[in-house]
Amino acid sequence: MIFYPQKVDKSRLMRAVDTALAKKQIKPATYYPTQAGSPGAQEARDAIAAGAELVIVAGGDGTIRPVLQVLANHHVLSQTDSPQSSQTPTPALGIIPVGTGNVLARNLGLPLSNMARAATIAVAGTNRRIDVGQVTMTFAGERPNETHVFGVMAGLGLDAKIFANTNSRLKRRIGWVAYIDGGLRSLPVTFERLSVSVNDQEPRQLKLHTLIVGNCGVLPGNINLMPEARIDDGLLDLAAVGPRRIWNWIDFWNRVIVVNWLIKRVVGWRKLASQTANVKTLENLRGAKVTVKPEGTVNIQLDGDPFGPVEQAQFDVIPLAVTVRV
Ligand SMILES: [Mg+2]
After folding, report:
1. What proportions of the chain, in percent to the nearest 5, are helix, strand and coil?
2. What is the distance in A from the centroid of ligand 1 to the CA of 218?
């Protein structure tokens, strides 16, 4: 049981999780609070080393992503014959959503604000295998390449600048409204010129504010950017966001909030979500491998974690890498 101690009340969490475990006659969990620096990753490695069959994460997207990474890497290693290939099976992942974004939990249809129900699903839910996206980033200067996974999406451009600028205390207090404020501080807005190649084909030149590379399609606010995208099809889907002016962009995020508000009250939200006129899906751009080269550099974010400006980003998918309880 990995949890983010700044956001999660441990005694409440223990009540929810140990109750769910007791119902299935499973012994109580071991609790690992995340440390600053690499939240979740070391804790996930410790859990695997201890022979855990199930790793439950209580936290936001920033805690889930490093755990996904460790589980996906363990899965990949277990498929090979290399001497490091581990004999321990890859644990399943249970998610107890905490915080404002919870993009992966939303895509999986998990309860966002009911800890007891989320704990029951984590312990006794069905196993579902999902893909994770993977990206190798080339940075300017001396910074060496880094490879990271994402559960939902990577954003290149204005979107990533917003995540980088959003004040996290503000974000916690008012949720996605903070991203609008982040957007304002990212001014002035410029177009990004990106060369995008899918499956090693002839690159296309795109001029846009943000390019989303999605493992699945739902953004916070339940806007479905890419209705065709599936989390288990081994493919990445691309969407271009290119409002004509900054106010359209602000309007875009306003719609995110409005739709989020409406979904709780109105049936037929899909119809509303489809009215997000500034979002254009690049229908033909879908594949197992995507290479993005900006003119200069472009900011990148993975499931809301900013990674700074990159000179190149090479994406692929690890198909069915992680088993999630849903
Ligand atoms: Mg997919």
Report:
1. 30, 35, 35
2. 11
pTM: 0.82
- Ligand 1 centroid–CA 312 distance in Å is 21
Four-way CATH pick for 2-125: 3.40.50.10330, 3.40.50.2000, 3.30.70.890, 2.40.30.10: 3.40.50.10330
Name residues whose C-beta falls within 8 Å of residue 265's C-beta, 6 or more positions apart in sequence: none
SS3 sequence of 91-125: CEEEEEECCCCCHHHHHCCCCCCCHHHHHHHHHHC
pLDDT digits (tens, 9 = 90+) for 243-263: 544 444 444 444 454 444 444
Distance 132 CA to ligand 1 centre (A): 8
Distance 228 CA to ligand 1 centre (A): 9
Task: Identify the CA nearest to 44 among candidates 96, 1, 87.
Answer: 1
| 151-162: pLDDT as tens digits | 988 989 876 766
Higher pLDDT, 271 or 294: 294
Residue 235 Cα to ligand 1 middle (Å): 4
CA dihedral sign of residues 309, 180, 267, 95 = positive
For residue 34 the two structure tokens come to 């995340």
CATH topology of domain 132-320: Tumour Suppressor Smad4 (2.60.200)
Torsion sign over Cα 35, 39, 42, 48: positive
200-207 long-range contacts, CB within 8 A, separation 24+: 200/289, 200/291, 203/291, 203/293, 204/285, 206/240, 206/282, 207/242
